[in-house]
């Protein structure tokens, strides 16, 4: 019934298995990939024909994690998987980025790649497995995909690179880098690093590229046995050479003039006018879709040719100069920390809010539930590019850019025990013309320091571009939006003056060489150091103390056996402390207590209350307490929080007491001295001895 094809190799110390022909046979391509005990089913399907009038490639990648893969039942009311998690969105992007440039030119059929995690061994992350599987499924599908690609994760510890480190090994590593590419070169890089040098980062990329070559060969072997007949690509419905010539003749000079305009909105108006002229003039000879496609090619030719020929860019800069920068902090009076970072026509308003442990994000992942105390949310409203558009929940782009900035900042955060705050950073991109994610990195660094968060060092980021033709190439620092859209590379580097903390690279051509990456990293370092210098004009380090509007967190430690006393039965005691003082209280299992309040007096009151609960009574020490019960033989007094002791009738006053109620009543505030403990550990108290020591009359009833 099944014709199964199977390939396996040893890779990174574990067995990698590709299998096709048994599951999902109606898909154009389907491959079951297993690495260790992590298994992912990857499928590829494309429509037989493109939709009429479509002028882009409609590719969708869906990575999904099933709870059963880790033997779990989903949380929540419905007990089934819901909308994509942040990780699912990020891995979908991770797969999309290296495969998208490799589909044949002119292919416009709707294509969907679905990667479903079926088993997770909690050691091998499914993202690399899914990338390999997606490549294999496309390669055997017959869809015009010019792969295969492969991917690998690279760690770095004790000066050595580690291929496909496990989850535990990644936690101990100075680097978490994912690289994907073809036989010829690298197509995509995503990473987080602990201030590593450019040389180490480049070495990691090339280490990964070298070590995933056996996987590419494995996919090719599978395709030789199981690949379907390749699809025929339709010939263009028009004479491309003739249309290119007519466009150049009709609007070539107009487009060239438009790309000398340094102001983005003015440039777009002139480009739009040139396109409208082309559509009107050539309407009888060619259809609008063909004209629009070739017009974009004309734009690219003019922009790219000018840079390679003159070394000058749209806004007049050379290839290495960074646009003018203005950094401002403390611009929002009630925010805990705020910064406005402007670089040319790109601007990010970044705001930091400090919270307590109760504000941490709880994440229910396949690997288990964990808490995150640093959140970075990136928003890209349509007005930032002068457009009117739909406002809604964050899309894949917003989530991806936010995570990139998160990775850049994360290695420089102070240890939680040194700065016990939950950190939420929101970046509102208010203007955009190239690399708003790197503006977010710079703004986040300034905003956190403005809030008093003691970053180890300030962090900055820069986006690099590439224009590569047969006769040469140029690497561009601090790219504009047009240079991103019409160029061959988006290469983002973030870090400190010491080293790199995040590297993200996307290539729009088949691959780039080690030489180009080396030049880009060196040029990015110069640009990053320049940006850090400009940022230092606003703030060179974290402010002393947190903002006056932020909560003050005081950390104390109590014995573990006293945690129950502070919490009380059903949380009664801790609720009373919170209600009476207005402070927030978090208690960890190890006895660490965090007390937070904007008003220091509230915090001090809560701390004193807690200390009173956990303190042990000491002999001959005088305490203030409250009479909680009066009996014939004495009075019970509550002191040191919830602790009670007995003042025997003989210890109430200097003179003989005939009736306890003659001296004290329930609710009275009294001073008592610890005079001993009985056989059961109960505390013996005396009011008489306090009276003797102070010479004061403490036997009167409290008014």
TrEMBL record:
Keywords: Cytoplasm, Magnesium, Metal-binding, Nucleotidyltransferase, RNA-binding, Transferase. GO terms for molecular function: polyribonucleotide nucleotidyltransferase activity. The keyword Oxidoreductase does not apply. It catalyses: RNA(n+1) + phosphate = RNA(n) + a ribonucleoside 5'-diphosphate. Its EC number is 2.7.7.8. Belongs to the polyribonucleotide nucleotidyltransferase family. This is Polyribonucleotide nucleotidyltransferase. It comes from Azospirillum endophyticum.
């Amino acid at each position: 019934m099944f014709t199964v094809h199977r390939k396996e190799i040893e890779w990174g110390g574990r067995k990698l298995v590709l299998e096709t022909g048994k599951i999902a046979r109606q898909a154009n391509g389907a491959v079951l990939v297993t690495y260790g005990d992590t298994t992912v089913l990857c499928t590829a399907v494309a429509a037989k024909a493109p939709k009429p009038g479509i002028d882009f490639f409609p590719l969708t990648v869906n990575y999904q994690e099933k709870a059963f893969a880790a033997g779990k039942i989903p949380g929540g009311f419905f007990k089934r998987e819901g909308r994509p998690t942040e990780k699912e969105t990020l891995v979908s992007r991770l797969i999309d980025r290296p495969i998208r440039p490799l589909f044949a030119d002119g292919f416009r059929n709707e294509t969907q790649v679905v990667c479903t995690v079926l088993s997770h061994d909690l050691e091998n992350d499914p993202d690399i497995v899914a990338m390999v599987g997606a490549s294999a499924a496309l390669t055997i599908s017959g869809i015009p995909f010019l792969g295969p690609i492969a991917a690998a994760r690279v760690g770095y510890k004790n000066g050595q690179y580690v291929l496909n480190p496990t989850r535990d090994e990644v936690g101990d590593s100075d680097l978490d880098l994912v690289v994907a590419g073809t036989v010829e070169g690298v197509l995509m890089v995503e990473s987080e690093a602990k201030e590593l040098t450019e040389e180490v980062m480049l070495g990691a990329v090339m280490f990964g590229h070298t070590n995933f070559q056996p996987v590419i060969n494995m996919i090719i072997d599978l395709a030789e046995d199981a690949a379907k007949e390749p699809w025929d690509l339709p010939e263009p419905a028009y004479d491309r050479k003739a249309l290119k010539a007519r466009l150049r003749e009709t609007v070539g000079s107009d487009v060239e003039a438009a790309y000398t305009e340094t102001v983005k909105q003015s440039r777009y108006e002139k480009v739009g006018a040139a396109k409208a002229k082309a559509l009107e003039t050539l309407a009888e000879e060619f259809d609008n879709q063909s004209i629009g496609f070739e017009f974009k090619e004309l734009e690219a030719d003019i922009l790219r040719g000018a840079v390679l020929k003159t070394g000058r860019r749209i806004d007049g800069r050379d290839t290495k100069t960074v646009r003018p920068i203005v950094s401002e902090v403390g611009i929002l009076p009630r925010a805990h920390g705020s910064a406005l970072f402007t670089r040319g026509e790109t601007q990010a308003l970044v705001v930091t809010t400090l919270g307590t442990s109760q504000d941490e994000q709880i994440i229910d992942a396949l690997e288990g539930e964990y808490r995150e105390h640093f959140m970075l949310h990136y928003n890209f409203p349509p007005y930032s590019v002068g457009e009117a558009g739909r406002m809604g929940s964050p899309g894949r782009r917003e989530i991806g850019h936010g995570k990139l900035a998160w990775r850049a900042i994360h290695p420089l955060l102070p240890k939680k025990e040194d700065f016990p705050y939950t950190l939420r950073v929101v970046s509102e991109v208010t203007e955009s013309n190239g690399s708003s994610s790197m503006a977010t990195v710079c703004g986040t660094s300034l905003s956190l320091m403005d809030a008093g968060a003691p970053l180890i060092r300030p962090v900055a980021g820069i986006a690099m571009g590439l224009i590569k033709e047969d006769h040469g190439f140029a690497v561009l620092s601090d790219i504009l939006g047009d240079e991103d859209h019409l160029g061959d590379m988006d290469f983002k580097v973030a870090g400190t003056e010491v080293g790199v903390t995040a590297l993200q690279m996307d290539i729009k051509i088949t691959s780039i060489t080690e030489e180009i990456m080396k030049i880009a990293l060196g040029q990015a370092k110069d640009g990053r150091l320049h940006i850090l210098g400009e940022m230092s004009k606003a703030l060179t380090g974290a402010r002393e103390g947190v903002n006056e509007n932020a909560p003050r967190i005081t950390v104390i430690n109590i014995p573990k056996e006293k945690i129950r006393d502070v919490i009380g039965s059903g949380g009664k005691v801790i609720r009373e402390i919170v209600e009476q003082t207005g402070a927030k209280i978090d208690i960890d299992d190890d006895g660490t207590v965090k007390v937070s309040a904007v008003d220091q007096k509230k915090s001090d009151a809560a701390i004193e209350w807690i200390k009173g609960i956990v303190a042990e009574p000491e002999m001959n020490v005088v305490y203030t307490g409250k009479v909680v019960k009066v009996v014939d033989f004495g009075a019970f007094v509550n002191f040191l929080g919830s602790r009670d002791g007995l003042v025997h009738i003989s210890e109430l006053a200097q003179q003989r007491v005939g009736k306890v109620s003659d001296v004290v009543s329930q609710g009275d505030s009294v001073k008592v001295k610890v005079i001993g403990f009985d056989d059961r550990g109960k505390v013996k108290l005396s009011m008489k001895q306090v009276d003797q020591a102070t010479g004061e009359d403490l036997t009167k009833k409290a008014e």
